[in-house]
Specification:
Layout (H helix, E strand, L loop, with lengths): L1 H42 L6 H37 L2 H7 L4 H7 L1 H35 L12 E3 L4 E10 L5 E10 L4 E12 L6 E12 L10 E13 L17 H6 L4 H27 L11 H24 L7 H25 L1
Helix pairs in contact: 1-2, 2-5, 2-7, 2-8, 5-7, 7-8, 7-9, 8-9
Amino acid sequence: MIKRNVIISSLISKNILISFLSFLTIFSLIIFGNQFFLVLKQSLNTNFLGYEIFNIVLFKYLRDVNFIIILSFSLSVIYSLNRMYKTSEIVCLRNGGLSDIEIFKIISHVVSTLFLVLLLSTLFISPEINKNITLITDKAKTRPDFIFLREAVFQNFENKDLTFYASEVTETSENNQRFNDVFLYDNHRNRLILSEKGIKKINPISGSVDLKLIDGKIYNNVNLPESDKTSISFFKEFTINIYSDKENSVNEIDSFEAKSSLNLFENRNNRESIIELIYRFSVPISMVIMTILSIYLSKTNPRNKKNFSLGFGLILYLIYYNELLYFRDIEINSEIDLYYAFIIPHTTFLILLFMIHYLRKKTLF
């Protein structure tokens, strides 16, 4: 008897895990590709550096991975059990005493593992990811256009203390640029720099921008009336910093999504903090409810050729997800008891769960 239960448990768990990894891979590729094109489109109006584009695409994918996991696991339960219904395997097992509760117990170890992963992710990892997304985006929005040097155009930066001009500008790798026939006037230091060529370098870690000039002259005190005060010096290489990301550092992030769970708990007297915490706990709970719902959605008559269980599962999860977001937003902008943000979405789907259980039981068994 025990050996039989182990075989059944292994069969069902194996089918669900294989399907889960397949759905997870497919949805991951779709979401990652979608985020890539959205960030590329955003970069047309935002001064992202090359490495920042990849970073923010990765962060946005990781931000959404919690919902990809829930959707993938729900659909994998529906798909795997549905196939076993089609081949009458589950029907035979049910005749042997396998109930819906037994099926949930069989996959409970997987559900428990995913629950803990989602709980840790929503409480600790996702806020840090949202924080990084906000930091990168805010820095890019405040980053001046001059770090992208243009050909044959006078550009002012450093509060108009520096004026740059180059007759020819060519792009190189990693957002660096080469230029020829450089004119650089430093109003603050009262000097004019002329150079045959140079290169603009962006530090990938600090985000600072340096101009490395090669083979040129520096005219000091150029705007003084006495010509004998002007001095000329020659150089082989001369480096000048034109921008530092420290100047545009973001000191405080207002978004509650980017705040740590500890910070939210310490400010629990704040309504928005409690709502955000409730939302973070709601995500792993929704996975458990969707798993139970998927067990009932997977039921089908082996003689039926058409089956829409996967479609119903996808639609129900999208409704569930948007319901969580809706009640989070409406609670922030209203005076309704904030605990409704936690109770109503889950209660709605629990009621739906009992309705599906009743209808399936009546029609199939």
